[in-house]
Amino acid sequence: MAEAHQAVNFMPSLTSDRGEVELSGPMWQEIYLSGLRSWKRHLLRFWNDFLTGVFPATPLSWLFLFSAIQLAWFLQLDPSLGLMEKIKELLPDWGGQHHRLRGVLAAALFASCLWGALIFTLHVALRLLLSYHGWLLEPHEAMSSTTKTWLALVRIFSGRHPVLFSYQRSLPRQPVPSVQDTVRKYLESVRPVLSDEDFDWTTGLAQEFLKLQASLLQWYLWLKSWWASNYVSDWWEEFVYLRSRNSLMVNSNYYMMDFLYVTPTPLQAARAGNAVHALLLYRHRLNRQEIPPNLLMGMRPLCSAQYEKIFNTTRVPGVQKDYIRHLQDSRHVAVFHRGRFFRVGTHSQNGLLSPRALEQQFQRILDDPSPACPHEEHLAALTAAPRGMWAQVRKSLKTQATQALEAVEGAAFFVSLDAEPAGLTREDPAASLDAYAHTLLVGRGHDRWFDKSFTLIVFSNGKLGLSVEHSWADCPISGHMWEFTLATECFQLGYSADGHCKGRPDPTLPQPQRLQWDLPEQVHLSISLALRGAETLSSNVDCHVFPFSHFGKSFIKRCHLSPDSFVQMALQLAHFRDRGQFCLTYESAMTRLFLEGRTETVRSCTREACDFVRAMEDQEKTDPQCLALFRVAVEKHQALLKAAMCGQGVDRHLFALYIVSRFLHVQSPFLAQVHSEQWPLSTSQIPVQQTHLFDVHNYPDYVSSGGGFGPANDHGYGVSYIFMGDDMITFHISSKKSSTKTDSHRLGQHIEDALLDVASLFQAGQRLKRRRRGPGDEDSGHRRGFISNKTVDSKAPRTSPL
């Protein structure tokens, strides 16, 4: 999602007005601290680690083994082959009357050792099995015998009924690729966008790097990979996110939308009550590890480490770098409405408050006529300010308004009750969707607490949205939570006939607590400056959202192609028509096949993709010729995507090598060149992970419409897309209005044209109108008909369709 912007700006975060910031401590110390951080995390979750660490065995299996050994001993059999007798000899002699107790203790110790050895063997075997990635490189319909055998063994060693963190101890570590392979892949990726002269110069830098610095840097990185849980993820979090001094708004946060065509209830407080209750139900399941782990192909587990910080988490600003503060529990949410802050308890003596009780509390806030105190209304703009400025101001707030600040930062999450409606409207569908995306991404600059892990936004007409801070986790994690929330609040909790949450209010609940901010005089000017900066940044963002309804993933699969690769190649064609040139393209791919893996970059602008685009713009090329080149480009993209998922990508390895070079004070012109590159096109697919929660056949409109993020640079685009059901793709496009080179609506029209043009290459898509546009062609007008036969504000089904 928004990580591309952070990835290209982490170098400025390592510089200051006085020059480059020196990283403290030698390389050995940093490797040691990386491992120490990993082990501290393991110790803090010791009990959960124990319960999941014995998986696929269970604690009851120890009791079964102990009982079997005792039974054999009673039958005068010795399954230990004399080991228990030796253990008895080592135990203290408590006298003859304790002879039987010594036997029981010896049996227990032997059972424990045998049980531990069996579990260790299972873990090692499963880790070795999960290190095999040949299955990912094979088509599902032509699976090799090796992969079939592998699948059978994984089923045997995986156990039954895994919980969220069951596989953490069995996941392999992310491998460090060969530095020669990484440099070769890098040069291959930049060849389409560089002139011959620039490519020769870059190749020279690369050869010098391989000859002089690569082996030393690689050795330290290899050492870290064996000591720490992941050789790149902790540095990625620190240097790409936490050391960034830019505003979080637009640069780091991203948004997620509600259902596109339906709103279950128009009552703001009711929607807030059900949504907050559903989120807290998700947290409850998360704490009890009742959420099953994500499995590829229903078999290959993904790392679940990022789930730990969804709730009770705040990114706290620092002068040099931020840090993530995570609480084990929080029993309240912080609420913002019309410039006022409230603390709303989420639990009573009987447990979690019901949706109707939460609705009652939110309605009390909506009905509260008290005005905002001076400067309180715009206080949250500080969280949108540059991080160094906010860190300085926060020191004053921590002294003068300790309780109010703690109530916000210590909340489970932040809730913003917006005073305006949002969402798709019949009167102006295109403009209303664009405005919806814009307000989710930036709001008014002062009505989101951007430091919180996420802000739940509830609009006056009952529409929902989510604004998510990026450092603690990536989009699939928050997307998983958001899918659960929408499905639960709509289908399971439901609403009464009058639109209220089900159940009865609780008149005994105390009023929501109004937070009092004692703002010192010196903070007032900072708030004004922060608000001005947030409004400037907000007004410069151009958001455009459009549902493409001509076809979806079902058509693409009938063409025997990957839906993601299909869209990525169409994006290359659309961007070329928009800008008249090729550019480095950032596509996010997950590396959660490995322990604590996060993301890798797929460089989608390949030589094969460029050949296809040129053919499409060449009037002399026939459709069969274009189709052949398209298939080659798709195959290349799939190979890059799979390599990235297997830990064999380019960018994270080069990033980690660069960090090592900074610690060692080694100057590498090649690495400096690599990390000064810009990404004019940043893309990401938002996957729908829990299809079982939604009945897309009977209720096709009840699917999240995805979300978006800001552009990666001032003259670039941010494009995300989600496959809604089988026959629609929703695109979210962003750019800067200040740029004369970009226009989100223009690119949107090019994307639509490109998708239709590519589809028309296939026999099944010949009926689709094909239009060829040249670079820089003007938008032919707003799209029409994407809400035809749709109900914008229909009610949700009263009973679950599941």
UniProtKB/TrEMBL annotation:
It catalyses: S-hexadecanoyl-L-cysteinyl-[protein] + H2O = L-cysteinyl-[protein] + hexadecanoate + H(+). Residues 175-752 form the Choline/carnitine acyltransferase domain. The chain crosses the membrane at residues 50-75, 104-126. Residues 1-47 form the Carnitine O-palmitoyltransferase N-terminal domain. GO terms for molecular function: carnitine O-palmitoyltransferase activity; palmitoyl-(protein) hydrolase activity. It is a multi-pass membrane protein. GO terms for biological process: carnitine metabolic process; fatty acid beta-oxidation; regulation of postsynaptic membrane neurotransmitter receptor levels. Its main location: other. InterPro entries: Carn_acyl_trans (IPR000542), CAT-like_dom_sf (IPR023213), Cho/carn_acyl_trans (IPR039551), Cho/carn_acyl_trans_2 (IPR042231), CPT_N (IPR032476). It is found in: Cell projection, Axon; Cell projection, Dendrite; Endoplasmic reticulum membrane. The active site is at H470 (proton acceptor). It comes from the Eukaryota. Its EC number is 3.1.2.22. It is an enzyme of class 3 (hydrolase). Keywords: Acyltransferase, Cell projection, Endoplasmic reticulum, Fatty acid metabolism, Hydrolase, Lipid metabolism, Membrane, Transferase, Transmembrane, Transmembrane helix. GO terms for cellular component: AMPA glutamate receptor complex; axon; dendrite; endoplasmic reticulum membrane; glutamatergic synapse; mitochondrion; postsynapse. Residues 766-802 are annotated as: Disordered. Belongs to the carnitine/choline acetyltransferase family. Palmitoyl thioesterase specifically expressed in the endoplasmic reticulum of neurons. Modulates the trafficking of the glutamate receptor, AMPAR, to plasma membrane through depalmitoylation of GRIA1. Also regulates AMPR trafficking through the regulation of SACM1L phosphatidylinositol-3-phosphatase activity by interaction in a malonyl-CoA dependent manner. Binds malonyl-CoA and couples malonyl-CoA to ceramide levels, necessary for proper spine maturation and contributing to systemic energy homeostasis and appetite control. This is Palmitoyl thioesterase CPT1C.
